[in-house]
Structures are given as structure tokens and as C-alpha cells.
Amino acid sequence: MKPSIIASVIIGLSTSLTLLAKPRELNYGTKESLELAIQDLINTHGKAYPKGPAFLKRLKQINDEKDLAKLRKEALMANPAIDFDQLLIIERSVNKRWLPANWQCNSSLPKTGHNNNISTLSLKDGSTKQIFKPEGGKFLGDLELHFDADKIMFSSIGEHGAWAVFEMDLKKGAQPEQITPPIADIDCMDPCYLPDGRIIFASTSGFQGVPCVGGNDIVANLHILDPKTNNIRRICFDQENNWNPTVLPNGKILFQRWEYTDSAHYFSRLLMHMNPDGTNQKEYYGSNSYWPNSMFYARPIPGSSNKFITIVTGHHGVARAGELILFDNNKGRHEADGVIQRIPGRGKKVEPVIKDRLVNGSFPLFLHPYPLSENHFIVSMSLDGKHFGIYLVDTFDNIVPIQEANKNALTEAIPLRKTAKPPVKPDLVRLDQKDATFYIQDIYAGPGLKDVPRGTVKTLKVYTYEYAPRKQGGHYAIGMEGPWDVRTVLGTVPVNKDGSVMFKAPANTPIGFLPLDAEGKALQIMRSWATAMPGEVVSCVGCHEPQNMSPTPRPTMASKMAPKKLTPWLGTKPRGFSFHREIQPVLDESCVGCHTTELAKKDGRPDFEDMKKSYFELHPYVRRNGPEGDYHLLTPLEFHADTSELVQILQKGHYNVKLGEESWEKLITWIDMNVPEHGTWTEAPKGRGSKTEEFLGRRAETRKKYAGLEVNPEVVQNPYTERKKFIAPPEVTENKTKPETSKHWPIAPDKARAMQQGKTPLSVDLGNGSKMTFVYIPKGEFINAEGKKELVKKSYWMANTEVSLEQYRAFQKEYKNGVYDMHYKDQVDRGYYMNDPKFPVIRTNWDEANAFCDWLGKKLGKQVKLPSSSQWEWACRAGSASPVNYGELADDFGKHANLSDVNMKKMAVKGVNPKPIKNPPPHLDFIPKRDDVNDGVLHLAKVGSYQPNIWGLHDMHGNVAEWTSSDYADDKKTVLGGSWRDRPHRAAAGFSLGFRPWQKVYNVGFRVIIEE
């Protein structure tokens, strides 16, 4: 059964637990595992575990499995940490879906038709005693026991048929009372007791929908309730669901958050922690990690606020249940860095597998772990994929049945005993304020801006997200290969020379940051958000720094000043970024005169006159992250505006078009905001059954009631009703200067070949099993692409291909090219891997290319360099005066170069684990290309795959553009040759681009020369 973005119920059913034909057999432990466990209990508890030595003695004499099982239960149930006689459990029939899918909250479950109850389970004799069973087959779950063990909370169906949180006094045995307000269109669930008597729970008051399913599943975020006053305040403002709040021993709240602002949504759940009042919300585990996909029911190890046990599971596939994994975030917070072990799985390394249906086929399956210590856990476990029993498990691979699975599922086991209250953390929130303060000590600290020189970041652009309402949303709802959510620029603030910045921004608002260079272009994109409570001071050490990174103990420039107010973007009120209100006026004023509908019909140029088409005509010239990108931290400047053809065209003076400062600002912001089309949800496409205006109206009401916010993002602040008049640029004056000539140019092919006569190619051993071949390039003169005569005074040897990844690894052993971005959503991997050792090396900056030259030069005892632009163009042409060395621009380049060809259609994909669409429609197949040519590959080709030029040089056109030693403009270096993403005119011999010497560019590599 395939998922549907409409029928979320069908998706949910397809992700329920799979019943095996018969229960699988499981090894409950060996003599060795039991010996280790007993010895550990002796070492840990000493005299409090008096029978330990006797247990070891008995163990040595046992040879029978039944006797071993008996001793296992006796010895491990004697654990002093089991200082209780009963467990609270929920017993339920498995004939009704009772586990939400891994993207859902309880709102997506059937409300009735369940046979479930809360009971006590005796450890002494295994008997159960029912405490509460709801009427009418209503669901109950999310069991929570108070620290004093005198009352419980749970989720069920309340008044008006909405999900609600109930509380029940265990001492009095009275009927449960609903403690969340009875509001028919707001669900409440997943409660957590706080040490000060308040309650945290999840609520759907934000009227948000899960956008990847068209908003048909509802989003619940965390709120805090004071039972004394019944006051409710929203404390999380997240795009997607929050799950499983629980109190850490240090008094903070641990919970799971799901986010996918432009990230791979199958993998982007992470654990967060915060103060109970919602302040200091920070990553706890898993940011930018593909594994674990999900971490449900996480609980801290007693006495530790860093070690935790959780259920690791996937996105699709098995719902909520999964593998039992023990972590310590002091070891690391990324992927498997913090893993202590899988249980069972002693001594086995846990690999961070990238897989959607992560635990399909995994055995056994676990739910609802409750840690007794760092080594011992009570957990629900299933041997058949459907029925669950209660078990005691440990890190030594012992499993003790407490109550084995029967026809029902026994879940959510909690020891019925008092537990120590964590310390009460005082509230830091100041509800009389509307703003919060954000402080970044040094924006260059951390990996987010790795290798970006100090002084590059000039300003910070601050923006927010407006999330999809219920019954609306999707990966193409706001823009084509654009953002999931509406983006609103709140303003900008200057960054100090030391990298520090402090500013005020709205509280109770998801905030994103973009560090900008001197031209206002983003050096990194955040793809996440920070949320601050009213009056809070949010402090960061740097950009994407690890959470355990300590601030430098020194005053900063920002710390010596009052927090700055944001400078309004373009001097106006914040508004959702709309292409039709921000970019269309730029097109009307600067472009429409030449890009009319009539001319577009004649020669196929983009049509910017027709406002229904202009967005779809312009966005193909922008390279961006799209709705889902590589979830790992991106290379700085990966999607910098200068890597987009649109910006490159304008920077080259496109027919004398010169944009004003405001027009450039709008265009760059559009690119950095991930090319949105719509600036409000009212204007965005509606789903079936959508009630956009109603839901947005209710959102505004609850936003004011629970967050004190009085904003209406749907108000159009800058309507574009009267189109701007086109202002024609100055005419391009004809260059009357005659092109220079040379009697030695062009060079006939036979003569060009003869210039290499007697010069056998050189082969250089790089020492790692790879070799590099150099061909002789004679000296000479030529007329360059600008019509000027150039003299190459000395001959030299040039590598016959660009440097391959394999060759570069002789210099940097562990270097990886990384991945290329995939279009669409539902991605099950990082993208298109570019790590074939025969591919050209990419994302090496100019400085690194020169370092390779220095290394190779020392190895060979010769002068190894990057070619100058003159040396490069002379070698590329090999005597040809044509723009491309294989003929003319209109010629078939399929055997000669890897350029943007018909294979680019394969970028139009769909489906889970997206695959190319056969004959894709134009709106999906939009990357500019020559679709009359087939060069055989989509992205990179192995070096040397295409026919060489006359002088034996491969790939001088396409595959990757190449660094040269020549200056470009400003502080940039010249790049020549074009790449797989370019059409022939952008890969012509003299077509150049410029990038900063420290910038790693996705499609730029290099080749080297040896000077004689």
C-alpha cells in the first residue's frame, strides 16, 4: 500500500506493526551475560545485594536452559533498584490501531473502538488489577505518574470529542477529571508533571497541519498549564510535532521535535531540552543527523542529565516501536557518536544507517522503556511484531519476562513508587515583554562558517516562518522546489568586527538567521529555527557550534552595547515574501521590455510579462536547496547567490541591465529565502476540504490567547496593483574596435598536433596507487574570447584531465566530494553521491588547489601550479578559434563534453525514494539544458570519459569548471570551462566566472600544470 499525501489514515495503517507468521525465538541470555550482570550488581550494590555471591556459585553449576532461566529471573529481579512491588501498565487489545505513525500525534488515531485499561501488575505473582477503563471504547495512553505516586495523568477523549488530558487520584480512586480545556477543535495530549506542580502537555492550538501529507495530519506543540489558575501558555512554536516531554534530573525538559524546513523530512527528528518555562530551548541529540530517524519515549538514566534510553525507529514502516538504544550525549550528539550500545547488542558497534523504514525486519521490537539504572530497564517488548509483554532487560543482553505477551499488548510500564523530584528551575520568562534578546558571541566559531575569513560577515538577516495550516501545505505549495513555509523577513542587524552581535527580536516566534556578506548574500542557510520566550536572553557561542562548546571568557563588542533593534527590511513592516509583490516589480521595471510574451513565443526567451508565468520562467535560473536538502550541515556558501546563473548573468552586465540597490536586495533575498512564490497561505494553493480562512482565523485567536501575539501574517502590506513602467537600459554600443589578429592564429589541426611532436606524455605516480598524466603544451599566441592577442611565452605540461578524487586523496586521504542536491521530497538518502574516486574532485577552494600544487611540486621537485587564464584558454582551444574546441556552440557535444543535456530531465523525480519521471512536465523539468543532446550522464562523469582536444586534453569544456591562478575582480579568482550544469555557451573557451579563493563551489575543481 503506497502512501498518499491525502489519505493520511491509509498512511497510518501502512505503518502499523507487522504481525509475523509466528513468534520468533529470542535468546534471553547466556551464562556469560548473566555472570556479567550478577557481578555488576555485586560491584554496584555490595551488601544491598546479599545473594550475589551465591547466585554466581549456582551459575557455575548450571547446564540446563530451564535452570538458567530460573536463576536469571531470581538473580536479576533481586536487583536493589527494583524497590517496588507493582507496575502501572496500560493493557489494550491490538485489534484497533493504537500507535500513531511516526509523523503523527494522537489526533490521527481512532478515538473509539479500543479495549484498553490502566492496571497494576504485581511483580510477585503477575496478577493484574484494573484501575480505570474508559467508557465507550475511548482510547487512553500517554500514562504519567506523579513524583509522589499518588496520582496519574493520561490522554483520552474529553468533552466535545476532542483529545484531552485527564488526571486521576490513585489514593481516592475517584473518576478521572479532565484538566485541559474542553475545546472542540483543539486536541490536548502527552502530559508531563513538573516538580513545581505545573504540567506540560502537547496541544494542537497552532492549527497547523503536517505539510508533507497536505496538512491532513495535525501538529501538536508543547504548552504549560498551571492547575492553580488554569492558565495555559504555549512554549514551543515548531513546524512539526513535539513528542514525549519528560523531566531530566537537572530539572530541564527533554522532548522530541520534528523539523524539516528545507531538510530531508524522513530523518529530521531530534531531541531537545529546555527549561520548564520554555526558555533555553536547545538541541539535546541528533541535529543534522540522518540516524536516528526518530527517538521516541526517551527517558534519562537516573541521576544523569546526559545519558538516556530511547526507542530508535524510522519514518515509514514500523510505528513508534523499534530498537532500544542507550546514549550519552557527552560522547557526542551527532548520529551514532553518542551511542553506548543497542540492547541487546553488547559489544556490537551501532552503525548510523541511512534508511527510511529503519527497523523493518529488526527483532525484537521495543516500546516505552523505563530505566532503573544505567544498565537495567523495564520495557515493553514484542516477539511477533504485534503483541507486547513487559520485560526486564539489561546491557549485558539478559532478558527477563515479567509478564509475557498474551493476546493483548501490555505497554507503558511505570514502577508504582515515589521518585525524587528534580530541582525546581525558576521561571526566566518575563510575560510583560513582547521581545527577546539574541546574543551570538562569535559567529565564526563552530563549523557553520568553517574557513570563512573573519570580517566577511557584515550583517545578519533575521526572518521567521509561517507554518502550513491544517488541510493545506505541501512541498510545492509555497514555491517550485522552494520552501515548505511562508518566509517573512523581520529585519537586519550589523555584525561586529569580532563576530559578535546582540539584537532584539519577537518572542514566541520561530526565528531564523542568515549571515550576509558585504553584498547582502547569505554565506550559510539555517534550515531550522530558534525560539525565545518573552524577556529571554538566548545566547549562542557561534554558528552551529556543538552544545558542549564553551564560550570564550572575554567581553565582546556586542556585550559592551545595548541590544540593537532590527532594521526593518527595506524600511517597511514585516511581510511574507511574495514573488508577485517583490520580484515582479523588479522584472517590470528592468526586464519586461525585452522579455515580453510576444518575443518569448518567437525565440523561447523567458516571458516575464505574463504574471501567471513569470515565476516559473525565472526560478529555473536560481540554484537553491529546495524543500529537502542534505540534512548534514551544508558547506558554507553551498547555495550562495553567486552560484546561480541568474546572478552570474546580471553580474556580467546583461545587455547593460543595471539593477538598483533595492532591486538587488529583493532578488538576493528571494534566492536566500529558497525562491518562494507565495507570501501568505491565503494566496497559496488549497487542498481538498481545506478551510484556510477558518483555520487561520482560529490560529490568530489562539496565538493571542496562548502566546500573547497580535500579528496577522495574512495581511498584504505591499499590494502590487499598478505595474511599474519598464525603464530601458542604455543601448549596448557596438564595439568599433577591430579584433586583434595574428598571422599565427588560428592553427590548423595538423600543425597544432605537430607542435607536440617528440613530446611523450609524462606519467607521475602519486603514491596511493593513482597516477597523473601530463601532456606537452607548446608556447604560442592566440586571439582570446575578447578579441585580444595573448602570448604564451613558455611551454608547459598540463594534466590531461582535471584532478580526480582518487588523485586528490593522495594529498588529503579522507577527502570526500559529498553529494548533489535532489529535487522533490520523500528522499531516502543524502542526495546523489559524488564520491566515485574517478570523478573529478569538487568543492576544493582555490587555496586548497594551490596547496595540492605545492605538495605535488615538492614531491616531484618541480614547479607545479594552477594554469593562468591565458594558459588555460590557449590549451583548451588547441589552435581553434571557435568558442568550443570540438566545433561550434550549436554542435552535438555528446562525445566531447559533459554539459547540461537531455539527462537533466532525470532531475524531475517523484515517489518515495524518488525516481526520474518518464516524459516529465515542463514545470518539473525546468533546469536549462540542451535536450537535443545526450552526453550519457546526469552529474559528474569520470575524468577522461570524453574525446580529448587535439593536444590530448579531456574535459576542458564541462564536467567541472576549473580554478586558474588569475584574478577575476575584487578579491575573486577566475574559473573557466563550465560544468555539467552549463549549456555550451557557458562552457566556451573564454567564458569565465569568479569566486572567492576560500569558497568551496559545488561544480568547481582544478587541473594543474608543470612549468618547464
UniProtKB/TrEMBL annotation:
InterPro entries xref list: 6-blade_b-propeller_TolB-like, CTDL_fold, HZS_alpha_mid, Multihaem_cyt_sf, Sulfatase_Mod_Factor_Kinase, SUMF_dom, SUMF_sf
Domain of life: Bacteria
Gene3D superfamilies to which the protein is assigned, alphabetical: paralog of FGE (formylglycine-generating enzyme) (3.90.1580.10), TolB, C-terminal domain (2.120.10.30)
Annotated ranges, domain Sulfatase-modifying factor enzyme-like: 791-1009
Taxonomy of the source species: Bacteria, Pseudomonadati, Verrucomicrobiota, Verrucomicrobiia, Verrucomicrobiales
UniProt xrefs under PANTHER family: FORMYLGLYCINE-GENERATING ENZYME, SULFATASE MODIFYING FACTOR 1, 2
Domain Hydrazine synthase alpha subunit middle: 455-545
GO molecular function term, any single one: formylglycine-generating oxidase activity
UniProt cross-references to Pfam families, sorted A to Z: FGE-sulfatase, HZS_alpha
UniProt name for this protein: SUMF1/EgtB/PvdO family nonheme iron enzyme
